[in-house]
Design a protein that fits this description.
Elements: H1 3-24, H2 33-46, E1 52-56, E2 66-72, E3 78-84, E4 98-100, E5 103-105, H3 109-126, E6 135-141, E7 162-165, E8 170-172, E9 175-182, E10 184-193, E11 197-198, H4 209-221, E12 233-241, E13 247-248, E14 251-260, H5 263-269, E15 276-277, E16 280-290, E17 293-294, H6 300-310, E18 314-319, H7 325-329, E19 335-336, E20 343-344, E21 352-354, H8 357-373
Helix pairs in contact: 1-3, 1-8, 3-8, 6-8
Domain Peptidase M20 dimerisation: 182-273
GO molecular function: carboxypeptidase activity; metal ion binding
Protein name: Glutamate carboxypeptidase
């Protein structure tokens, strides 16, 4: 292993548990302005002194501003690091960080505050080597977990040479794994327009929105084909209808999470949702469109160079979950995700980071950044 990478990663890992504790201590469910601003204050405190820090508009309305932490150097290449501080865990379920055996357990620990801590550590390490880069930038957003608006940062970083995202890491057998392929993702929203009625004295005068939404949910679920040509997963996730136990529900809404190799397969599901069911009108739309990511071929040389610096293999893999890396992949061909620490139980108050992986994954991140900054063959 490159000696500088070994020493810098050890320093990152030494500080990481306490830094992760500080970041996880902040409850920051997606959309919460106070939590997002408090996280931004913590990450600003952990940034290198040499960095400039800017708050920029978030892609989602009525959210706190996102954060850009920038190092300016004297080299030639520009590399973007990406993370997010929002979680799916509510304030009521939030758990601060606690050490449980080999695990660092706490809300948002692996998705993805652990990755943010490694990215900040990498910035501090590279701040001492400004000759290696023109710009090294960390973008931290606060709406990744529940964004339905268009992503607003692609053009801001157009022309960058590489994008490295710090979602959770993994092993690929005995090798270090990173993510070079992701599915496209979408959220289907269905609104039901029925008619209320007394469920005891006049049930047949009503038009039951709940039953219509159930039919729509079954129509979506019928397209589920993870082993099919598009590897499509179609999962109804949230249904709301009715306000009283003795009233035919006259309205409601349904959300479905859909993933596939391409957006066309997701769009096709809309054609299978009926426009009407037993007098209830159904309006279906795709309110969230995330592109897929296919960087396998473009990143072969980058992974080989980083493996040489690391002294062990880094292998590209596919992952089903969505990530902001996918938005950048269409304009920055050298896009790699999954640079964060290893762990588990993402989207759960009990999610965790494996403490032993912090140094290993810091080594992976430093190797990939160094390789991305080097002149390309």
């Amino acid at each position: 292993m490159d000696q500088w990478i070994e020493q810098a990663a050890a320093e990152i890992a030494r500080r990481a548990p306490r830094e992760l504790e500080a970041l996880v201590a902040v409850s920051s469910p997606s959309g919460d302005v106070g939590g997002a601003n408090e996280c931004a204050a913590v990450t600003a405190a952990l940034a290198p002194d040499e960095a400039t820090i800017e708050r920029v508009p978030c892609s989602s309305p009525e959210h706190a501003e996102d954060q850009v932490i920038r190092l300016k150097g004297t080299g030639a290449r520009k590399v973007l690091l990406v993370g997010h501080n929002d979680t799916v865990v509510s304030h009521a379920e939030h758990k601060p960080l606690a050490r449980v055996g080999e695990q660092l357990v706490g809300s948002g620990a692996v998705d993805m505050k652990g990755g943010n801590v490694l990215a900040l550590g990498a910035l501090r390490a590279f701040a001492k080597r400004p000759e290696l880069y023109d710009e090294l930038v960390l973008l931290l957003v606060c709406d990744e977990e529940w964004r339905t608006a268009d992503f607003g940062h692609v053009q801001r970083f157009a022309g960058f040479d590489a994008c490295l995202c710090f979602e959770a890491g993994e092993l690929a057998g005995e090798d270090e794994g990173v993510v070079v392929r992701r599915k496209a993702a979408g959220t289907i929203h269905v609104i039901a327009h029925g008619r209320t009625a007394h469920s005891g004295s006049a049930p047949d005068r009503g038009r039951n929105a709940l039953l219509a939404l159930a039919t729509a949910a079954q129509a979506v679920a019928s397209r589920h084909a993870p082993n099919g040509p598009s590897h499509l997963t179609a999962v109804p996730t949230v249904m709301r209808s009715g306000d009283a136990f003795n009233v035919v529900p006259g309205s409601g809404e349904l959300f479905c999470d859909v993933r596939a190799d391409d957006l066309d397969a997701i769009e096709d599901i809309l054609t299978h949702i009926p426009a009407e069911h037993e007098g209830v009108r159904l309006e279906a739309e795709l309110i969230r469109r995330w592109p897929g990511m296919r960087a396998e071929e473009a990143t072969v040389g980058l992974l080989e160079a980083a493996s040489g610096l690391l002294g062990r293999r880094i292998v590209g893999a596919a992952r089903g979950g969505a990530s902001d890396a996918s938005h950048f992949a269409s304009t920055i061909p050298l896009t790699v995700d999954g640079l964060g620490p290893r762990g588990g139980k993402a989207h759960n108050p009990e999610e965790f980071v494996l403490e032993a992986s912090l140094q290993q994954r810091a080594e992976v991140a430093l190797a990939l950044i160094a390789a991305a900054l080097a002149p390309q063959r």
